[in-house]
Amino acid sequence: MSENKMLSFDPASMMPADVYKLLIGAVVPRPIAFVSTLDTGNVKNLAPFSFFTVASSNPPAVVFCSSVPGRDRAMKDTLRNVLDTREFVLNIVSEEFAEQMNQCSATVPPGVDEFELSGLTPLKSDLVKPSRVAESHIQMECRLVQVVVVSDKPMGGNLVIGEVLRFHVAEDVMNNFQIDPDKLRAIGRMAGLTYAARRIDSNCSVQDRLGRRFGCLLFRSQLLNPLASNAIFKRLNPAAQSFFFAAWCQLRGNA
Ligand SMILES: Cc1cc2nc3c(=O)[nH]c(=O)nc-3n(C[C@H](O)[C@H](O)[C@H](O)COP(=O)(O)O)c2cc1C
What we know:
By secondary structure, the protein is of the alpha+beta class. It is built from nine helices and 14 strands.
């Protein structure tokens, strides 16, 4: 295998726009938080944020990052609304309404209702004032825990950490609290304007690789591998045993 020539960069001497391009190209795919807030005049606001992840499971908390827009605006409407009202709803984005989600990323003046702008349907929340997005299969009602200002320079970031007070999950995407990715059809943001859509690749699954790479260790355990006691299986060479163990994992739905 030919060795990759590595290029090294010092972010301190780079244009912030180039640093941004490196980051959004490298950290992929990013899930999308579709955040619904209310301003102090009760106007609904919706905006997507792909700098987003889980912050805690106990209690459940999520974090997304609203970046500093530039010299003309100190903060985005979502961040201002969250600071003013301390509430938001985080909606997971599926393929079916990706286009409408994108419309909500347009810079529109405060006071414009982005549900009306995009044609998405507002749904009353149980515990917080901002609406849920009815088209979303998973909605989380959140209360602000903390805003962490990472940097107040243009393109700097404000982390918004929210505790999830209530989950709403469409019945058909969940079984015993396990979300079926085929039914959720969530999308992730890639570099530039591209998105990752759901494609389950079993050759890429971690358990499949574990089964293949560490099969020699795992398949000796009766607990992990009932095949280990099978007379025919025992006569196979280690590579064949590893292969059959991985196949067995897949058939069981583990891979
Ligand atoms: C898929 C997608 C992901 C985005 N991710 C972010 C993000 O992580 N942080 C951010 O500040 N802006 C992000 N944006 C841009 C904001 O959605 C955009 O600035 C929007 O106008 C903010 O709305 P607001 O002013 O109503 O809060 C993203 C846009 C898209 C389409």
